[in-house]
Design goal:
Largest sheet: 3 strands, antiparallel
CATH class of one domain: Alpha Beta
CATH architecture of one domain: 2-Layer Sandwich
Radius of gyration: 22 Å
Strand content: 15-25%
Helix content: 25-40%
Number of helices: 2
Structural class: alpha+beta
Number of strands: 3
Distance between the termini: 80 Å
CATH topology of one domain: Alpha-Beta Plaits
Strand order of the largest sheet: 1-3-2
C-alpha cells in the first residue's frame, strides 16, 4: 500500500460510497476515506469524514471540485419525488370492481 502524504477532514451529507465513487473517478493515486475521529455530533444528516491521498494533486482536485459535485447531488430533485420533495401523485383512478349482477 502506498504512503498517504496529505489529507483533510470534511463534513458531508453524502453517503461514504458516493464520496468513494467520486474519488475513484476523479483521482489517480491511492486514497483512503473513513469516519473522522471525534465525539462532537454534526447533526442534520451530515458526517465528518477524513480523506487521505497519496498524491498532493489529488488533494487539490478534491478541494477544487468535490464541493460543486456534492451541491449538485444535494440540490438535484429526486426523480421519485416532486420538486418540493413530496411523494409523487398517483395517476389514474381507484374503484371497486364488482361482479356483474343480473
Amino acid at each position: 500500500m502506498s504512503q498517504m502524504t496529505c489529507g483533510l477532514a470534511y463534513v458531508t451529507g453524502l453517503p461514504l460510497s458516493e464520496v468513494e465513487d467520486w474519488i475513484e473517478a476523479n483521482c489517480s493515486g491511492d486514497w483512503s476515506v473513513g469516519l473522522a475521529d471525534g465525539d462532537d455530533p454534526i447533526g442534520g444528516g451530515k458526517t465528518k469524514i477524513q480523506v487521505l491521498f497519496e498524491l498532493r494533486e489529488d488533494l487539490e482536485i478534491f478541494k477544487g471540485r468535490f464541493k460543486a459535485f456534492e451541491q449538485q447531488k444535494v440540490s438535484a430533485p429526486d426523480t421519485q419525488r416532486g420538486e418540493g420533495g413530496e411523494e409523487p401523485k398517483k395517476k389514474g383512478s381507484v374503484g371497486m370492481l364488482r361482479p356483474d349482477q343480473d
